[in-house]
Design a protein that fits this description.
- The chain is an alpha/beta fold.
- The protein has a 7-stranded mixed sheet with strand order 10-11-13-14-15-16-17. Strands 3-8-7 form a 3-stranded antiparallel sheet, with no helix packed on it. A 3-stranded antiparallel sheet has the order 4-5-6, with no helix packed on it.
- Strand 7 and strand 8 form a beta hairpin.
- The chain is globular and about 50 Å long.
- It binds iron/sulfur cluster.
Length: 346
């Protein structure tokens, strides 16, 4: 895959969806290309259990393991034409959704692994293809200044457009959709589930919602029709035009600003800082409620100088009303050699 991105190649039974309602899962049986799907009816039934309406923090969707029947995957239901791409000669496509701007040959996929060129047209493969679902307090996203004290019906699909070495959800972000278990959850049913479970909002989170852009936008519209808000948890690695469009559909965006140096973005994130900063400015100019989270990684992005430059930039470019949260790093994925962030630093 492009840019040396690490992709897991384990069979399904070694690629757990730790964020999915585990009670619905059985040990994997299939190989990578024969991904079993959760039975949708089982998922919806479980998600409608009254206990979820209590809004218990971090509560998963509960159901007896015995009810975990599966159906054969019908991939076509997940496929929609992508909204932001350009056709090129020789059946190539150029994805213009994020700054990576992958140029893709026929039958190949972009860096994120969830968008594919089929005969010179470009498609998302993860519309309504949910690999993680949880009901979380909105403060866990974290948002601290929108709908406080409420719960968010939080979902993700597989895939990401960067490859952070400290990713906590790499088992679902750094894989293709065929490598994880999924449930078919179209926007209207997602919105209804969120409302029935007393959630104020749907949160697009855990992996990178930019790569499931079409599903996110359609779900936000469906949510609004049911009186449910939409909040986005993103790395902010998105091009201006799709971001402006997104701002017309969602209610709040939280950006994981990974550091305030291009070097960190290049070496640790496999992305670029400038498009993220430009995106933050665009969000504010569109009147979007925006919060920032900065994960403090010992020795890599924790200097006083970097914090000062960040704070000055936020105040000057976004304004003093934009919350910046500093969060604690825990050794994960490819950065297990570093200690957790000392409390003294925070
Ligand atoms: S969204 Fe995916 S395919 Fe499109 S440019 Fe970004 S990484 Fe490439």
């Amino acid at each position: 895959m492009a840019d040396g991105k690490v992709l897991r190649t384990e069979p399904l039974d070694r690629a757990p969806n730790h964020l999915l309602p585990v009670e619905l899962l059985e040990p994997g049986r299939g190989g990578r290309e024969t991904s079993p799907e959760l039975d949708r009816r089982t998922f919806l039934k479980a998600a409608a259990l009254p206990c979820l309406a209590c809004g218990l923090g971090g509560a998963g969707v509960l159901a007896p393991r015995a009810a975990a029947a599966r159906t054969k995957e019908d991939e076509s239901r997940y496929i929609r034409e992508a909204r932001f791409y350009e056709k090129q000669p020789h059946k190539k496509t150029k994805c213009v959704l994020c700054p990576r701007e992958c140029v893709i040959d026929d039958r190949e996929r972009g860096y994120c692994g969830v968008r594919e060129n089929r005969g010179g047209a470009y498609y998302t493969l993860v519309h309504s293809r949910v690999c993680s679902a949880h009901i979380d307090p909105i403060e866990k996203k974290p948002f601290f200044h929108v709908y406080p004290g409420t719960t968010a019906f939080s979902i993700a699909t597989a895939g990401c457009n960067v490859n952070c070495k400290m990713c906590q959800n790499w088992e679902i972000s750094q894989v293709r959709p065929e490598q994880v278990r999924n449930v078919y959850l179209p926007p209207k049913e997602l919105a209804t589930l969120a409302r029935q479970n007393g959630c104020k909002s749907i949160a697009y989170t855990y992996t990178e919602p930019v790569v499931f852009y079409e599903y996110m936008v359609d779900s936000a519209d469906a949510g609004h029709a049911e009186g449910v808000k939409s909040v986005v948890v993103t790395g902010g690695y998105i091009n201006r035009k799709p971001l402006e469009e997104l701002c017309r559909h969602v209610d709040a965006i939280k950006v994981d600003l990974k550091a305030f140096s291009e070097k960190y973005y290049e070496e640790i994130v496999n992305g670029k800082l400038k498009p993220v900063l430009d995106g933050l400015v665009t969000m504010k100019s569109r009147g979007m409620w925006t919060e920032i989270v900065y994960l403090v990684v010992p020795t890599l992005n924790d200097s006083d100088d970097e914090f000062r430059r960040l704070a000055k930039w936020v105040k000057a470019e976004l304004g003093p009303d934009v919350p910046v949260h500093f969060s604690r790093f825990h050794p994960e994925y490819l950065l297990k050699n570093l200690p957790p962030t000392p409390l003294k630093t925070l």
